[in-house]
């Protein structure tokens, strides 16, 4: 009875084929699951890296903001500190104001023909007096200098360039 046997064989073969296909399907599913797992791991790693970079960037940004704020505060403070110096009439703790300098005694240098006046030397620019030059004598010590020289000096420090005696002018 060949046909039934053949049919049985065919059925067995089909069953085996189905089993094989199922096994193959299982393998394919496993491989797919494996690739999915690998993909998930890669994605997780990428996400972790991204988060790390984001955190680093955030920290850097925070530092930058803090530094910028500190810098701005410093600059603001510096400007605030500089304002009194730029003020037209400062409280004369550093030097004399132009109004105060104008009150200091001024005289025209005599002709250097006579031997006595030729010895007069400006201690600021180290040049001797010439006739017609404007000179200024300090009231405290009597030392005399070119008016332009001593004015520039006194604008920075209210003291005689030679003997350091204080130069004070009472503005009435
Ligand atoms: Zn001078
Ligand atoms: Zn002096």
UniProtKB/TrEMBL annotation:
InterPro entries: Znf_RING. Keywords: Membrane, Metal-binding, Transmembrane, Transmembrane helix, Zinc, Zinc-finger. Its main location: membrane. Residues 122-164 form the RING-type domain. One of its GO terms (cellular component) is membrane. It is found in: Membrane. It comes from the Eukaryota. The chain crosses the membrane at residues 39-66. GO terms for molecular function: zinc ion binding. Pfam families: zf-RING_2 (PF13639). PANTHER family: E3 UBIQUITIN-PROTEIN LIGASE ATL42 (PTHR46539), RING-H2 FINGER PROTEIN ATL56 (PTHR46539:SF9). This is RING-type domain-containing protein.
């Amino acid at each position: 009875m060949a046909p039934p046997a053949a049919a049985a064989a065919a059925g067995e073969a089909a069953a085996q084929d189905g089993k094989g296909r199922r096994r193959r399907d299982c393998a394919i599913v496993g491989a797919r699951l494996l690739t999915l797992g690998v993909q998930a791991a890669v994605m997780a790693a990428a996400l972790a890296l991204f988060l790390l970079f984001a955190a680093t960037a955030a920290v850097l940004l925070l530092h930058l903001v803090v530094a910028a704020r500190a810098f701005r505060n410093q600059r603001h403070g510096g400007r605030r500190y500089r304002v009194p110096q730029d003020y037209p009439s400062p409280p004369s703790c550093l030097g004399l104001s132009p109004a105060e300098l104008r009150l200091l005694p001024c005289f025209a240098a005599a002709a250097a023909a006579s031997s006595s006046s030729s010895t007069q030397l400006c201690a600021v620019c180290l040049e001797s007096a010439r006739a017609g030059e404007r000179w200024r004598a300090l009231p405290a010590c009597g030392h005399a200098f070119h008016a332009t020289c001593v004015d520039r000096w006194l604008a920075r420090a209210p003291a005689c360039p030679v003997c350091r005696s204080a130069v004070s002018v009472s503005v009435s």
